[in-house]
Specification:
This protein is α+β, with helices and mostly antiparallel strands. It has one domain: 2,3-Dihydroxybiphenyl 1,2-Dioxygenase, domain 1, CATH 3.10.180. It is built from four helices and eight strands, in the order βαβββαβαβββα. The chain has an eight-stranded mixed beta sheet, with helices on both faces.
Length: 138
């Protein structure tokens, strides 16, 4: 598995409104609300910076709105861009990594798989077509 770049960093927050206020007003980031509770900020040098509620992270990963008991509650998600998410999942599983969510295409068009780091960071292995536009073929 070869990681091409960090596709995104997204704090996982309890309240979308409080997060937008803190990151937007207090830190001065150009935060804008997108669909539902999700927010983004366009920042130079970062492919994607978003604010994601724990409820939405749980829904996307497990199909339910409550984060499962017995798993660390993540504070952030970091997404690593690869060329083939399914192959990356197979490689991770062959190494004994517990993959929480196998490869799937999200409603927004990104292919994702998810796992937890030992520190409780929600990691994504992703293929994000719109982040590759304009990039030369490798």
């Amino acid at each position: 598995m070869e990681v091409r770049f960090v596709a995104g960093v997204t704090p996982i927050v309890e309240s979308a409104e409080k997060a937008r206020e803190f990151y937007g007003r207090e830190l001065g980031l150009p935060v804008r609300a997108e669909e539902g509770d999700y927010s983004v900020a366009d920042l130079e040098g970062v492919k994607h910076f978003g604010l994601w509620t724990l409820k939405d992270a749980s829904r996307s990963t497990f199909g339910v709105e409550e984060w499962p008991d017995g798993l660390p509650r993540p504070q952030v998600t970091i997404e690593f861009e690869v060329d083939d998410v399914r192959a990356a999942v197979a490689e991770l599983k062959s190494r004994g990594v517990d993959v929480l969510q196998g490869a799937k295409v999200e409603p927004w068009g990104q292919t994702t798989a998810r796992l937890l780091s030992p520190e409780g960071i929600l990691l994504g292995v992703t293929y994000t077509p719109w982040l590759r536009e304009g990039r030369s073929a490798q």
